Amino acid sequence: MGTAKSNIIKFPGAALDKQAGRFLFPERITEARVACRMTQTELARRVGVQRQSISYFENGDRNPDPETLKAIADALNQPLRYFSTSSPQTFGKRSANFFRKHGPDTKRRNAASDQYASWLAQTAFAFDRFVSFQTVSLPRFEPSGQHNDPNRYTAEELESLAEETRRALGIGLGPISNTVRLVEAHGVFVARLMMTNENVSAFSFWSGDRPFIFLASDKESAVRARFDICHELGHLVLHRWITQDEIEDKVRLKEIEQEADYFAGAFLLPRNSFPNEVYSPRLSAFVELKKRWKVSIQAMIFRCKNLGLFDEDQCVNLYKQISYKKWRTSEPLDIGPNSIPFEEPLLLRRISELVFEKDPLNRDELLNHLGLSPNVVETLLALPAGTLEPTHDQEPDIQLK
């Protein structure tokens, strides 16, 4: 810590305790900037310094003066304490993140999502000392080698593994009432992430032995969000052994995503029960099926094709009708008073509310531990806006004699 090349910069004494001193962690500037999807040039422009200065600050080569650090904190929507707080502990080593796309056009978005994943794991772990978390009871699979490529699953394997996962999670062959509650009950932490102007469906990862799923907040269809949950569940049970370099290979990523999609369809619409309810290839019949199974009409048609219930001509005809009715992006029961409601994360919210109520860890202690802004922590914990904002207003206790 005492060398010039230390990755920790002495924090200006004027801003903090002059005697003991505090330290600025340069990597925290990088983290907050990446989460905001900003380049160093964009941050420099907002702060009013040269881009090279931001590079120096992030590398730990120079110390921003208090005014510049305050401007950086404001630009990145984080309190000053974030930059003087080291990264909190998590459950363990992070697995690869299962993003839908990789490449230059999605690099900034994926990096921001990756940072939020770290923050989510840190936030959940902050309660580990106080709460007995749900036991993780997800099965874990690997390809049997029956496919021509030993690293891939066959369609039959995916059907069987979806059935095995249903049995492991204690559900039968009928529709799943709430996919979020189901995975939370088996130890998966779920959160929603609002990332405006980005095409983020969902992503998942492991931190140590703890699984996490992040959902996009701007999905307009509850049934598509349900499919996303089951898609990510597929990654968690099928692909835990996958490495980051495989995910960054476009061809391999496409194969992995196809497997997760197939698993999600088989998990939501079991081959031993769903076909018994498909009585007609007419599009109108699928509206009632959607109401019961809470799966999109397009996904149900694709499932019927996989199961051999419809031939290619019937599927093409149905998709043409969907296009004609403009149901590609918005189907019946997606929007309006009769729409299928969204399933919201609840586990982390319940945990935090219980801890705050019993007071082994209060709100201020949590924020100081994480360093994050209240609104970020509220998002991660699915708490109402303003729950963690500081308040010092106290009403006098007045009683009648």
Discrete helix count: 17
CATH class of the domain at 112-268: Mainly Alpha
Class from helix and strand fractions = mainly alpha
Largest sheet: 3 strands, mixed
What percent of residues are in strands?
Answer: 5-15%
CATH topology of the domain at 112-268: Arc Repressor Mutant, subunit A
Describe the structure.
This protein has 401 residues and is mainly α. Among the domains are: 9-86, lambda repressor-like DNA-binding domains (434 Repressor (Amino-terminal Domain)); 112-268, Arc Repressor Mutant, subunit A (Orthogonal Bundle). The protein is built from 17 helices and 5 strands. It has helices spanning 26-35, 40-47, 51-59, 66-75, 80-83, 107-125, 155-168, 179-185, 222-238, 244-247, 250-268, 283-293, 297-306, 312-324, 347-358, 363-370, 374-381; strands at residues 9-11, 22-24, 189-193, 202-207, 210-216. The strands form 2 sheets. Strands 3-5-4 form a 3-stranded mixed β-sheet, sandwiched between helices. It has a two-stranded antiparallel sheet with strand order 1-2. A hairpin with a 2-residue loop joins strand 4 (202-207) and strand 5. Helix 2 (40-47) crosses helix 3 (51-59), helix 7 packs across helix 11 and helix 13 (297-306) packs antiparallel against helix 14. The longest helix is centred in the N-terminal third of the chain and has 19 residues, at 107-125.
Features:
401 residues, mainly alpha, Arc Repressor Mutant, subunit A, two-stranded antiparallel sheet, 17 helices, 46% helix, disordered N terminus
